[in-house]
Amino acid sequence: MSFRKVVRQSKFRHVFGQPVKTEQCYDDIRVSRVTWDSTFCAVNPSFVAIIVEASGGGAFLVLPLHKTGRIDKSYPTVCGHTGPVLDIDWCPHNDYVIASGSEDCTVMVWQIPENGLSQPLTEPVVVLEGHSKRVGIIAWHPTARNVLLSAGCDNVVLIWNVGTAEELYRLEGLHPDLIYSVSWSRDGALFCTACKDKSVRVIDPRRGTVVAEKERAHEGARPMRAIFLADGKIFTTGFSRMSERQLALWDVENLEEPMGLQELDSSNGALLPFYDPDTNVVYVCGKGDSSIRYFEITEEPPYIHFLNTFTSKEPQRGMGWMPKRGLDVSKCEIARFYKLHERKCEPIIMTVPRKSDLFQDDLYPDTAGPEAAMEAEEWVAGQTAGPVLVSLRQAYVPSKQRDLKVSRRTLLHESCPPATAIAAAGPTTPPPTPPAAPAPTRLSAPPALGTGPSAPTGGGRLEEVLQEVAALRALVAEQGQRITRLEEQLSRLENGHV
User: Fold this and answer.
1) What's the predicted TM-score (pTM) here?
2) By CB count within 10 A, which of 219, 281, 415, 482 is most buried?
3) pLDDT of residue 439
4) For residue 483, what pLDDT band results from cuts at 50, 70 and 90?
5) What's 274's DSSP letter?
């Protein structure tokens, strides 16, 4: 099929992928050879986790993002499972918590030290036992804290409260055969599954019922996958009766016929879809392929619009996907993949070319942040909430050519402890009421402590430091608002608006 016949306006038409330099890859990693169609890799803004070969059990590596280069064979792993690890998933509400499912029929949840592993981690925070066969799928709830889904080869889906290690829901009898994939809806009220019986099901876990079902979504016998999109539609990948790989888009309200159906090629690797809800772009990576295709999903026919293909020489064994808040917005990076080779992990950066170095509002709408929208108990009680959104503007670090004040403001902002951390630290000396912000337009360095004529000691000195910090924060906030207004004016002028 030729994709060249459709030419349409889209800000993502010229997205291009670029692998990083060799020294920025993670080398000498023995990627797992287990025959299971999972991604084998999970990424968050702090760590990259990779399922690796392990003798006498299952293990996965957890590397800080900055630890690139050759990884020593003796580097510590997370190695508490007694069978090969099949799937891993980072908690969306805590960058130091990861869950793993294994052939040993257990789900384990791990707490990773802040600076990464210095010794092998063998003791999980909690072990969840409820499956009678191997656990191949792990998926955290997108908005409720400590809610985890696991699906096993016993065709059972379990929903857990990790905080109490209890089984919340046990969904048996809904799937007559092996479950290939599970995907939560954006608000976590439903999830969809792709099953070996060729059916796609939409399930309400709290009621334990199938809300909608499409039989023979793809006619082929090879594995298929289904993911929820932000607007509630379902995107599937699978195979035709002639073993050609297919993409399809479905409306949950009417599953009789797909809204859109495209055939790609006749390769035999399972297609792994990755979805960005902020831009409505779906990236499709085939296991064993050496390419990443990407498509834009729109409201007008044919709904699925081919954008481009990133190709490389080496086939991919697995793929990791960085959440939006971990991207470099100053370089217009809209996606980052972590491609697994046989002995290496290679980051691939997807970029929208832009001439301006200002923050691009149209590329970075507010995205899901690390805060949970509700507790597990609230979700069980029937509440539903979308993700808590955060602006990526604060993560924007201007290029070196721009005014140093903006960079200083950003760095100061990032170094401030979050309010939740201050509240959790218990009672401390309350910060004084910040004095009125001074009027200068340039940030000056604070005086060195203890250099004044009457340098206070003890509590008085602490009080002075706190006052100085509060005054600086007030000044930074004021200047930050002014910079934002000036940037918006400059952006309007560059775009030709008076």
Assistant:
1) 0.78
2) 281
3) 40
4) confident
5) E
Contacts of 200 (CB under 8 A, 6+ apart): 192, 193, 194, 213, 214, 217, 224, 226, 234, 236, 250, 255
Per the model's pLDDT, the better-predicted residue between 227 and 483 turns out to be 227
Which of 83-92, 136-145, 356-365, 412-421 has the weakest average pLDDT?
412-421
DSSP structure string for 173-235: SS-SS-EEEEEE-TTSS-EEEEETTS-EEEEETTTTEEEEEETTSS-SSS--EEEE-TTS-EE
Provide the β-strand partners of residue 282: 275, 295
Q: Both tokens of residue 170? A: 């046990």
CA 439, 440, 441: angle at the middle one, nearest 5? 115
- Does residue 72 contact residue 65 with C-beta atoms inside 8 Å? no
Strand order in the sheet with 245-250: 225-228, 234-239, 245-250, 260-263
- Return the amino acid letter for 325: R
* C-alpha 54, offset from chain centre: 26
Indicate the DSSP class of residue 335. Answer: E
**The Cα angle at residue 213 between residues 269 and 145, in degrees rounded to 5:** 80
Q: Which helix (H) or strand (E) holds 492?
A: helix 459-494
| Residue listed under structure tokens 């808040």 | 325
Report the alpha-carbon distance of residue 4 to residue 309 in Å, rounded. 12
Q: Which of 5-9, 106-110, 454-458 has the lowest mean pLDDT?
A: 454-458
The pLDDT assigned to 458 comes to 54
Q: What is the pLDDT of residues 210-254, one digit of tens each?
A: 999 999 999 999 999 999 999 999 999 999 999 999 999 999 999
Q: Which residue has the tokens 């409260």?
A: 161
3-class SS of residue 245 = strand
Query: In the prediction, which pLDDT does 406 show?
Result: 23
Omega before 92 within 30 of 0, i.e. cis: no
The Cα-based distances of 382 to 74, 142, 201, 379 in angstroms read 47, 15, 21, 5
**What are residue 367's DSSP bridge partners?**
390
3-state helix, strand, coil in the chain (%, to 5): 15, 35, 50
Q: Which CA distances in Å does 145 have to 142, 373, 419?
A: 8, 8, 18
User: Which is higher by pLDDT, 174 or 54?
Assistant: 174
Percent of the chain with pLDDT over 90: 71
* Element containing residue 476 per DSSP (H, E): helix 459-494
